[in-house]
Amino acid sequence: MINPSRRARFAGLYLACVLLAVPALAKDAPLQVIDWPDTGTPTVRFTFGKFKALPGMGSLHGYVMDTTAQNLSLQRIPNARFKVYLFDKNKVRIGEDVVALNNVGTGETVKFETTVTTSGNPASVSLEAILDSAKTIALLKVDGVEAGTTPRMINVGVGRHTLAFSKEGFAVGTFPLEISRDDVSGGTVSFELGAAAFDSIELRDGSVLNGDLVSISGMDVEIRVGGVIQHVDRNRIKRVMLVERQVPILDVPPAIGPAPNP
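Now predict its structure.
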């Protein structure tokens, strides 16, 4: 039989073990887990560890945090870049950084350290994908026959050829290529696509809509994509890029003034 005093001692010991175990579990918990994109099927899962302060930064604050990224998709990620934003407890943005993923296989997890400089004490993070327009992939046609996407190595015979480059949202471009019998193998062709043929809406999840902007209201943006009107919540939009359009000139004969008095 356990007397009341011994029972109290056991209860006190059990309570002390629980209280000591809780901080140990909380210490290993990550600061934040973010799936990208946040709508639809996620492709990458980022896990951000807690901030570890760096000494001697003066008026600025330096931190290091352990970060992991897991490829949730069924395809390898050759390269991708993301902008990381840091916020204080009042949701004020106080810093930013860029993280890059290279050659991450399906289901693979990579771990790295992220070093950031902030103007305050960070409490949370957010991220968005960076679109690299310099690495735009275009469809290539050689003499009217599809040859794949750029960059592409092709074999062409002697004579005159036409290379056509196309990409949704850009004007189609052509490049005349002439091969003589004296030309040696090798060489490259660089071609810059013309100005965009459509208006472009870049969303915060990294995707882009190309079409004809119809209207913008307080909380709704209307864009015609492939002849179909789509409505987009303005809070999902990062930026809107408009193409220059020619003002239609009406073929109206000039007005004829009153005849002068004789």
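The helical segments are 4-27.
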